[in-house]
Design a protein that fits this description.
DUF4487; mainly alpha; 189 residues; 7 helices
């Protein structure tokens, strides 16, 4: 019951935040960003990282990125991504043409992984938008997270190639291709 109340509270916060103006995001940054980072564990990744990168990240200066955002959000994002990969590997054995629910679940997981990679790309673009080049210690969580997710994605894609040969009709190949394209794009930013 307590987790359900907390989830409803975080869900209503997210619903409220997506309606805010850029000025409100800038003003509420320090109070709301930690709450959204905590929401990762309660609500999952869907939408939260995108809200953070689209609405709050533009208002954070280079000197504040690590402490205000990256150190709070990116390690959790990497952990969530890793758990999604593990879930795919755990569930793939039960995949059959009769198990349409599992196919849909795996597609949603792959789509969430692509969304996470897109949000990481937004972080990389934001860091690249500053006139001065950042020192690594001012953004230390970003390269660590990006490299881990790239490595995990490409290891997963190697597995996926073998998997696709066996189950090509069950999961749309474009899901795997899109995941790899997202990772390729992240690696080139």
């Amino acid at each position: 019951p307590e987790a359900a109340v907390m989830s409803q509270t975080n869900s209503s916060l997210l619903d409220e935040v997506v309606q805010w103006s850029p000025e409100t995001c800038r003003q509420e940054l320090k109070s709301v960003l930690p709450k959204l980072a905590i929401s990762f564990w309660i609500m999952g990744i869907t939408g939260i990282l995108k809200v953070i990168t689209d609405m709050f990240l533009p208002h954070i200066g280079l000197s504040e990125l690590e402490d205000e955002c990256f150190s709070k959000v990116l390690p959790k994002a990497a952990t969530v991504f890793d758990s999604m990969l593990k879930e795919i590997l755990d569930q793939v054995g039960g995949l059959s043409s009769q198990n349409t629910e599992l196919c849909a679940f795996l597609r949603r997981l792959l789509e969430s992984m692509m969304q996470l990679i897109d949000s990481l790309s937004a972080c990389v673009r934001h860091v690249g938008s500053f006139d001065e080049a950042p020192y690594l210690d001012t953004i230390r969580s970003l390269p660590t997270c990006v490299l881990k997710i790239l490595k995990d994605t490409f290891q997963h894609c190697k597995f996926s190639f073998v998997f696709q040969r066996r189950h090509h009709k069950l999961l749309n190949k474009s899901c795997f291709r899109n995941l790899q394209r997202c990772a390729d794009s992240l690696g080139t930013h």
